[in-house]
Prior knowledge:
Organism: Massilia orientalis
Helix content: 25-40%
Number of strands: 5
Number of helices: 3
Order of helices and strands: EEEHEHEH
Distance between the termini: 8 Å
Shape: globular
Radius of gyration: 14 Å
Protein name: Holliday junction resolvase RuvX
Strand content: 15-25%
Amino acid sequence: MVDIVLGFDFGIKRIGIAMGNTLTGQAQPLSVIKAVDNTTRFKVIGDLIEQWRPARLVVGEPRHPDGAEHEMTLRARRFANQLNGRFNLPVELVDERYSSAVIPAKRGEIIDAKAAAIILQQYFDDHANSY
């Protein structure tokens, strides 16, 4: 059975979204939500969930390089809990340290969807033998 998975790079100003499936185990950038209010954010996410019908969601969990938590760690966890509560889908957290650092970007380029794809790819790589 092939499952669709959506990945999220949570941020205060933007949320990057990627998608992939368990057959290919490959993630690709999908879109970026630029709204800062939760009503709009969750409406867009709800529309994407309706369109793609994912089996699960993956959220990047930011941490300091030494693994210590910080403010965004807690915000990302809260976002993951909200996704689970609103859409009743399993949500997994993935360590996202360095996800943005490996993306070659031009000045001013929005890389959030690419970062979400790296987070989702990490999930697929970590679970390659589970499908």
